[in-house]
């Protein structure tokens, strides 16, 4: 068949391209994404900006220099007209209580930005891992689809011989041609889905990942899972979401302290020199801002409300993470049980049933319909196994996202 020849040539061309592709495993892709992603660099720039914010918060106020010049005219007899000048220097005082509160707000902002960067990187790695395992899933589906094509072409050849010798009706040949074309169509669709998954993975990693690449792992190669009790204990320290929520609460506390100390008087030292044709006057004193009309009740109330919000969000985040962790482990156990059941029994039995049906058909004990039914059952079992392995991998990804252990992956 012409379609079969074209399909075989396409498969051979795709196989020849694999030799020129660069191979990657999951850690290599993670390092590549964290090192080249512009989104990651933008998040890190936010941390750098917060770090400079701490520097700005610790800066002392600059002095103010004022110079005035003019002329004097006598309004009474005996006065001397001439030039008049005035020079003053004012140095605002950065009071310790206000300075420490301001720096505390900036430092808490830096902690929040750092935790936010960790959370962003954890989400990026989670999306990358999901795309990674999706590519592995599509590769497994394509391998199975190619096996189905080879199987149907072998069955079709045997039926063609039987039809030529008169041992089988032509209806079986027509039916086998239809099933072969259907298998080829499924293989073609599986190839398109694989290319789409590869493009989505490259979108996550960035342009540093070449268009032509291969993955060294298989879908069954899911990393080992850390026990639930261990993850529960380390979650409070390792979760970037909790760290960010705690940092936001600390920043709200520092902001409230800052707004309260803003009600205290501001002080500044001032020195001035006044000169006129007759006199030269030097003065040194203190300038005090009296908080008489603005008692900052609005900013204090706003900061108090923000602190209450941050505390409530922290408690909600703690509860949400605990529940999400339980659900992820339950999903992992369910998928693990499905994978075990399919690998140890269902797929093997379906494969054995297919071999028995094919042997019986060769000896004329069963019809072609029984072979097709056995093939459908075997394909469905393999598809369920691939789906279960993918669910197992995505459950592991979600658990690792919730953990987000600082310093990289921890196996």
TrEMBL record:
UniProt cross-references to InterPro entries, sorted A to Z: MdtP/NodT-like, OMP_efflux
Signal peptide: 1-20
Gene Ontology molecular functions: efflux transmembrane transporter activity
Gene3D superfamilies: Outer membrane efflux proteins (OEP) (1.20.1600.10)
Keywords in alphabetical order: Signal
Keyword Lyase in annotation: no
TM regions (residue ranges): none
SUPFAM superfamilies: Outer membrane efflux proteins (OEP) (SSF56954)
Protein name, entry field: Transporter
Family: Belongs to the outer membrane factor (OMF) (TC 1.B.17) family.
């Amino acid at each position: 068949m012409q379609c079969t020849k074209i399909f075989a040539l396409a498969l051979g061309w795709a196989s020849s391209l694999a030799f020129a592709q660069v191979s990657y495993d999951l850690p290599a892709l993670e390092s590549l994404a964290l090192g080249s992603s512009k989104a990651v660099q933008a998040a890190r720039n936010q941390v750098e900006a917060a770090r400079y914010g701490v520097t700005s918060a610790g800066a002392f106020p600059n002095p103010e220099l004022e110079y005035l010049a003019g002329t004097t005219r006598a309004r009474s007899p005996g006065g001397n007209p001439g030039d008049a000048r005035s020079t003053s220097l004012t140095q605002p005082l950065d009071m310790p209580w206000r300075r420490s509160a301001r720096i505390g707000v900036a430092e808490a902002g830096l902690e929040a930005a750092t935790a936010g960067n960790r959370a962003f990187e954890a989400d990026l790695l989670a999306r990358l891992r999901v795309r990674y395992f999706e590519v592995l899933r599509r590769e497994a589906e394509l391998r199975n689809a190619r096996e189905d094509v080879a199987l149907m072409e072998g069955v079709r050849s045997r039926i063609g011989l039987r039809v030529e010798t008169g041992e089988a009706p032509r209806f079986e040949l027509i039916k086998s041609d239809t099933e072969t074309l259907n298998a080829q169509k499924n293989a073609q669709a599986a190839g398109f889905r694989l290319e789409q998954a590869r493009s989505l993975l490259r979108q996550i990693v960035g342009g540093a990942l070449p268009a032509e690449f291969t993955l060294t792992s298989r879908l069954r190669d899911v990393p080992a899972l850390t026990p639930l009790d261990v993850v529960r204990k380390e979650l409070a320290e390792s979760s970037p979401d909790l760290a960010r929520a705690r940092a936001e609460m600390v920043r709200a506390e520092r902001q409230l302290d800052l707004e309260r100390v803003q009600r205290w008087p501001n002080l500044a030292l001032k020195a001035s020199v006044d000169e006129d044709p007759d006199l030269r006057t030097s003065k040194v004193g203190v300038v005090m801002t009296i908080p008489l009309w603005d008692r900052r009740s609005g900013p204090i109330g706003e900061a108090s409300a923000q602190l209450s919000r941050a505390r409530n969000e922290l408690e909600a985040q703690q509860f949400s993470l605990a529940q999400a962790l339980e659900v992820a482990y339950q999903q992992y156990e369910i998928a693990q049980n499905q994978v075990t059941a399919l690998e140890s029994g269902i797929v093997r039995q379906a494969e054995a049933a297919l071999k028995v049906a094919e042997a019986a058909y060769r000896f004329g004990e069963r019809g072609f319909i029984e072979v097709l039914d056995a093939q459908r059952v075997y394909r469905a079992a393999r598809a369920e196994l691939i789906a279960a392995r993918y669910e197992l991998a995505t459950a592991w990804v979600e658990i690792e996202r919730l953990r987000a252990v600082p310093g990289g992956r921890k196996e």
